[in-house]
């Protein structure tokens, strides 16, 4: 049987797009006939604390859905302090080195990046071994950090840039979730073998249902990480609520600010529903009219995986993030575009949407296009040919 190992910093039972896409990849490869092993930290995201069933353990190994999962020790933290975040990444890197020294790995290894330092650890310690190293790049760091304001162009940035280039150089194959990512990589290493690997979801789509709101307002929903990059707190303050309700699902750094804002502005139709499981979320999303996918700043190379997930659910999308995501929304007629960072334009777009036209047929058409063009299994079969 073909064997492959996936090294990732996020994996279920953790929630969020990163863990979901790596789980999809692992399960998809098992369907393609691979014996899959996953190496990941003890689950701790997004709380920054190791989940109760795994507390006090240095290593936990289990077999779940025919996938062998090795969960390694990490100094867990979701602190805004850069030093603590660095220590957390380094602690997982140390655990990986320990694992490499005492365990035999399959020939093919997929390494998730970011985090850059974790990917660097894998590329550095496995570079001379008899392995095919496949780098799966979901976001471009440190460029994304620069655009988000996390980094400045100083000595530290140059070091991270060198690490980034080293990772690309040592990878035998690079998977990128966007054309922008692949263009960036080939601008550095023109002869590098690459493969466009979109973050398509893999779940059975739920039947479309009509929505009805007795208050006559469009129900807009956001579901996902409540981090600074998404800017949901600012969105709460900037939206025109004349014709809408705004519903929020998720957890993250901004959740306390959002809850406080809602409590101080009870006259506004903003509803925070907390974090729920992915299955519960999919059922809840069926009851809304539109979803919004925002980014506080346009991030080069980023294509939110929510685009493909919500389209599969048949949910019309307002995209407010710029970049390649806009191209996908337009190309496949998945919803509306608002100019990135322009809240006046966003409100103009929302106010131009007619609730009467948001019927089941609109949702059904979006779902059909998603099923046709965002086919996870077809993509996996193509990937298997190049692995």
Automatic annotation (TrEMBL):
Q: Does the keyword Transferase apply?
A: yes
From the Swiss-Prot or TrEMBL record, what is one GO molecular function term?
Answer: hexosyltransferase activity
Matching entries from CDD domains are given as:
GT4_WbuB-like
Looking at the record's lineage, which domain of life comes first?
Answer: Bacteria
* The Glycosyl transferase family domain, residue ranges: 216-357
**Is Oxidoreductase tagged as a keyword?**
no
Domain named Glycosyltransferase subfamily 4-like N-terminal is located at: 17-187
| Keyword entries, A-Z | Membrane, Transferase, Transmembrane, Transmembrane helix
Membrane-crossing residue ranges in chain numbering: 86-103
Cite the Pfam families for this sequence.
Glyco_trans_4_4, Glycos_transf_1
Q: Give the residue range of the signal peptide.
A: none
In Swiss-Prot or TrEMBL terms, this protein is called Glycosyltransferase WbuB
Q: Which organism is it from?
A: Mangrovimonas spongiae
């Amino acid at each position: 049987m073909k064997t492959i190992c996936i090294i990732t910093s996020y994996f279920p039972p953790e929630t969020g797009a990163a863990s979901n896409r790596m789980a999809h990849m692992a399960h998809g490869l098992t369907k393609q006939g691979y014996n899959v092993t996953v190496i990941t930290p003890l689950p701790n995201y997004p709380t920054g604390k190791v989940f109760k069933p795994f507390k006090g353990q240095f290593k936990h190994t289990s077999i779940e859905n025919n996938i062998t999962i090795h969960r390694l020790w990490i100094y867990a933290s979701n602190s805004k302090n850069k030093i603590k975040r660095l220590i957390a990444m380094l602690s997982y890197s140390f655990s990986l080195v320990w694992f490499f020294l005492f365990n035999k790995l399959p020939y093919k290894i997929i390494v998730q990046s970011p985090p850059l330092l974790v990917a660097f650890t894998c590329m550095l310690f496995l570079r001379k071994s008899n392995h095919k190293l496949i780098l799966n790049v979901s976001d471009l760091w440190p460029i994304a950090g620069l655009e988000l304001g996390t980094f400045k162009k100083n000595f530290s940035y140059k070091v991270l840039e060198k690490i980034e280039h080293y990772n690309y150089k040592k990878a035998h194959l690079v998977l990128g979730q966007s054309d922008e990512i692949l263009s960036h990589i080939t601008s550095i290493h023109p002869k590098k073998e690459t493969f466009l690997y979109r973050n398509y979801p893999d779940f059975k789509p739920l039947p479309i249902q009509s929505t009805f709101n007795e208050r006559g307002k469009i129900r807009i929903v956001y579901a996902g990480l409540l981090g600074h990059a998404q800017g949901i707190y600012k969105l709460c303050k900037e939206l025109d609520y004349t014709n809408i309700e705004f519903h929020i699902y998720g957890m993250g750094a901004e959740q306390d600010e959002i809850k406080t804002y809602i409590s101080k502005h009870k006259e506004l139709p903003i509803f925070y529903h907390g974090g729920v499981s992915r299955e519960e979320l999919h059922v809840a999303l069926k009851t809304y009219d539109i979803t919004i996918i925002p980014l506080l700043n346009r991030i080069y190379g980023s294509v939110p995986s929510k685009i493909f997930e919500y389209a599969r659910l048949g949910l019309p999308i307002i995209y407010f993030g710029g970049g390649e995501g806009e191209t996908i929304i337009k190309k496949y007629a998945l919803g509306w575009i608002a100019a990135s960072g322009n809240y006046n334009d966003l409100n103009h777009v929302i106010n131009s949407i007619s609730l009467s036209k948001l019927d089941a047929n609109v949702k059904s058409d979006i779902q059909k296009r998603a099923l046709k063009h965002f086919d996870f299994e077809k993509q996996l079969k193509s990937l298997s040919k190049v692995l």
